[in-house]
């Protein structure tokens, strides 16, 4: 007989999901009400306002998609890309590749700008691509590449697109709440994120926002949006406007309670304070790892504080270390993806998991595990180096 599932207690320091705040878990357990209940609609309005504060935007079409970040990505592309549209897609990791596939599936023409994994999107290459293809309709890039831990210069990239009157689609799945992100100031037209990273909410919700210019594109499409569920013209009847809402789908009521609570927590902390907290704990983790003799994949100027890709020491079994950390310490870190599989670990410092206790646990557990395996590391210095950052 199958019994109730009781998950183990873990410390989640991989690329996501991140640890969920007890307040958010409690919010999920509140009574379920109807998705057209007046109180739920009131909460929806608050949720939109909180998301606008988090994206730093005044966009009216700002809402959570009732599905994970991958659906947020698809919602942007399926609404904005029409057959024959030329789209410059920047790929410097796994998730740029997914953007490319979205454009192809919806009949767009891809102009690919490729950069080495672990390096940011080249502003110069994007300029050159626009010079060669001035009729480009959209520029798509990943702000925070989760597969490598690199941050690209969203402000400069959006400025180039604006020169050519092109829309921008930006992946902010890992950056929202953890790194500086200013949608309106930087001129981003469409953006998507995920609930499970720096927002410290369970997976399954994707916040998105569309500028007025992007909404105009959606409303003036010559072809019908090839997705019923993600068609923003239909969804706006449920998430848009005041007063009565038109039924579109049964929203994940309790998951939206959770997102609401996570955004309330972020509001209480202050968005810029959250950015600073992620940066501070990253510096401590970095000091400890480097004292151990472990180096980073990404140059310091372009690193994401919330996603640290570090090189696996020579001769060390990637999977064996991750398994030992999980078994002996209840600690999860992430493996490398694609070309970086077996070469890097991805250590997350996201949302509620971004704290001194977890930095200390990660450093001590990793040092202990590697030392037992005879890895070529320096011992006894990591925690001292991290403490010096906190004290300084």
TrEMBL record:
Modified residues (N6-(pyridoxal phosphate)lysine): 197
Location of the Aminotransferase class V domain: 32-336
TM segment ranges: none
Keyword Oxidoreductase included in the entry's annotation: no
Cofactors required: pyridoxal 5'-phosphate
First and last residue of the signal peptide: none
Any GO BP annotation: glycine biosynthetic process, by transamination of glyoxylate
A Pfam family of this chain: Aminotran_5
Keywords associated with the record: Aminotransferase, Pyridoxal phosphate, Transferase
Sites where the protein binds substrate: 346
GO molecular function: alanine-glyoxylate transaminase activity; L-serine-pyruvate transaminase activity
InterPro entries: Aminotrans_V_dom, Aminotrans_V_PyrdxlP_BS, PyrdxlP-dep_Trfase, PyrdxlP-dep_Trfase_major, PyrdxlP-dep_Trfase_small, SP_NH2Trfase/AEP_transaminase
PANTHER family listed in its UniProt record: ALANINE--GLYOXYLATE AMINOTRANSFERASE, AMINOTRANSFERASE CLASS V
Homology family: Belongs to the class-V pyridoxal-phosphate-dependent aminotransferase family.
Protein name in the entry: Alanine--glyoxylate aminotransferase family protein
Organism: Neptunomonas concharum
């Amino acid at each position: 007989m199958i019994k109730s599932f009781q998950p183990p207690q873990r410390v989640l320091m991989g690329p996501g999901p991140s640890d969920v705040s007890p307040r958010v878990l409690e919010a999920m357990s509140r009574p379920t009400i109807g998705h057209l209940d007046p109180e739920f609609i009131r909460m929806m309005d608050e949720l939109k306002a909180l998301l606008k504060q988090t994206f730093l935007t005044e966009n009216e079409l700002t809402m959570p998609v009732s599905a994970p970040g991958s659906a947020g990505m698809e919602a942007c592309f399926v609404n904005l890309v029409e057959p024959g549209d030329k789209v410059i897609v920047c790929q410097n990791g796994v998730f740029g590749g997914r953007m490319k596939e979205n454009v192809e599936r919806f009949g767009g023409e891809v102009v690919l700008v490729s950069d080495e994994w672990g390096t940011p999107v080249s502003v110069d290459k994007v300029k050159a691509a626009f010079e060669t293809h001035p009729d480009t309709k959209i520029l798509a890039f990943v702000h925070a590449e989760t597969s490598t831990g690199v941050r690209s210069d969203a402000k400069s990239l959006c400025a180039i697109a604006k020169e050519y009157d092109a829309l921008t689609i930006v992946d902010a799945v890992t950056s929202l709440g953890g790194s500086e992100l200013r949608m309106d100031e930087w001129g981003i037209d469409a953006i998507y994120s995920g609930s499970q990273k720096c927002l410290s909410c369970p997976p399954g919700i994707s916040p998105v926002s569309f500028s007025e210019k992007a909404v105009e594109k959606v409303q003036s499409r010559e072809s019908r949006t090839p997705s019923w569920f993600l068609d923003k013209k239909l969804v706006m009847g449920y998430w848009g406007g005041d007063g009565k809402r038109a039924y579109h789908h049964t929203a994940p009521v309790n998951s939206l309670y959770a997102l609401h609570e996570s955004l309330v927590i972020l509001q209480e902390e202050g968005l810029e304070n959250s950015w600073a907290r992620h940066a501070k704990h990253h510096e401590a983790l970095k000091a400890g790892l480097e004292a151990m003799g472990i180096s980073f994949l990404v140059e310091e100027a372009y690193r994401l504080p919330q996603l640290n890709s570090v090189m696996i020491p020579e001769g060390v079994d990637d999977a064996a270390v991750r398994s030992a950390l999980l078994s002996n310490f209840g600690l999860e870190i992430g493996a490398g993806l694609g070309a970086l599989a077996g070469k890097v670990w991805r250590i997350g410092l996201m949302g509620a998991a971004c704290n001194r206790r977890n930095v200390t646990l990660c450093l001590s557990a990793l040092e202990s595990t590697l030392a037992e395996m005879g890895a070529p590391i320096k011992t006894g210095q990591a925690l001292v180096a991290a403490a010096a950052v906190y004290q300084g």
